[in-house]
TrEMBL record:
Belongs to the thiolase-like superfamily. FabH family. GO terms for molecular function: 3-oxoacyl-[acyl-carrier-protein] synthase activity; beta-ketoacyl-acyl-carrier-protein synthase III activity. It is found in: Cytoplasm. The active site is at residues 114, 263, 293. This is Beta-ketoacyl-[acyl-carrier-protein] synthase III. It comes from the Bacteria. Homodimer. Residues 264-268 are annotated as: ACP-binding. SUPFAM superfamilies: Thiolase-like (SSF53901). The gene is fabH. It holds the Pfam family ACP_syn_III. One of its GO terms (cellular component) is cytoplasm. Its EC number is 2.3.1.180.
Length: 351
């Protein structure tokens, strides 16, 4: 029987650490206000010279090293991002592949906002279990600082930049398999979390001839916009229901889960979901206080912290869940199929 396994995990954190005190200098806000409402203490921003593909490259390179694979061993590269290098083309995955030396292989982006990593797992699992590919590099990468309005204290203090990557490959060991992935979406609340487009010159010039022009969602800003209270309430309800569903469908209980790794958006959301699902402190993985909301990168970045603390072992069952713009959401039951951090370091040091 062919299964898909998460062979390696890695992340990249850009160099500039931005504290809440830094925001106090430019906004009517305070460290106390931010921590109380979000749990976030620091976040990291990419340099002006760094693009999303640069962050993805760093995480992808390390994930490949930890999996013991070379560029020619990768069959496809998929990147999840809401902050691509280019507006429409080429894809960030194409650029990242080139930087990694992966040539003449499929490479494409997906846009599922904060649920991006769950969607990546779903795609990789399907490709591998169908026999289409044997080894796939998936990367959640974000330079969200490039789409933030730094005069809007309700959004700019929440987000950070970063990247997380995994090598997903084939295995015959069910004890190391990605067991199940749920993904879903509903565009009814598309305006809860969005980055609007500015009206183009051509649309303005020919608006009298474009019958559908009134239906365009046109704005004067491309900055990220969010309805915080509405998103919070819907996120908690949706995530609890989705996690309960995936556990029930797989005949599992919360105590069967080694680590619960939710999307790192807001500490209040994480705690609310964790409490309703009866996960204890040892199971719950939290990194939002360090990195803020890094969207598609947040789950693999949190997983990498767990890995680098040498807590993640072969066969450990992780439950992942995320909720993001679209609106999109998803959950996944994933067993870790790679070497522990200590074993991987010893292996890399020996070669």
């Amino acid at each position: 029987m062919r299964y898909a396994t998460l062979k390696s995990i890695a992340s990249y954190v850009p160099p500039t650490c931005v504290t809440n005190a830094d925001f106090e200098k430019i906004l009517d806000t305070s460290d106390e206000w931010i921590v109380k409402r979000t749990g976030i203490k620091t976040r990291y921003f990419a340099l002006p010279s760094q693009n999303t593909s640069d962050l993805a490259y760093e995480a992808g390179k390390k994930a490949m090293q930890r999996a013991g694979v070379r560029a020619e061993d990768i069959d496809a590269v998929i990147v999840a991002t809401l902050s691509p290098d280019y507006l429409t083309m080429p894809s960030t995955a194409c650029i990242t592949s080139y930087k990694l030396g992966i040539e003449n292989k499929p490479a494409f982006d997906i846009s599922s906002a904060c649920s991006g990593f769950i969607y990546l797992l779903s795609l990789a699992k399907s490709f591998i279990e169908s026999g289409t590919h044997r080894r796939i590099l998936i990367i959640g990468a974000e330079k969200i600082s490039s789409v933030l309005d730094f005069s809007d204290r309700s959004t700019c203090v929440l987000f950070g930049d970063g990247a997380g990557a995994c090598v997903i490959e084939t295995t015959e060991d069910k004890n190391a398999a990605i067991l199940d992935v749920h993904t879903s979406a509903n565009g009814k609340h598309q305006d809860f979390l969005c980055t609007p487009r500015i009206q183009s010159v051509s649309q303005s010039i020919f608006s009298d001839k474009l019958e559908s022009s009134k239906s365009f969602c046109l704005h004067d800003s491309t900055y990220l916009q969010m309805k915080g209270n509405e998103t919070f309430k819907l996120a908690v309800k949706t995530l609890v229901n989705d996690v309960n569903d995936i556990l029930t469908n797989n005949a599992l209980q919360p105590q069967d889960i080694a680590y619960f790794i939710p999307h790192q958006a807001n500490l209040r959301i994480i705690n609310a979901v964790g409490e309703q699902l009866s996960f204890n402190e040892k199971q719950l993985v939290i990194s939002v206080q360090k990195y803020g909301n890094t969207s598609a990168a947040s789950i693999p970045m949190a997983m990498n912290d767990l890995y680098e603390e040498n807590k993640l072992k072969y066969g450990d069952l992780m439950l992942l869940d995320a909720f993001g713009g679209g609106l999109t959401w998803g959950s996944a039951l994933v067993r870790f199929g790679g070497k522990s951090c200590k074993e991987s370091k010893s292996f890399l040091d020996s070669i």
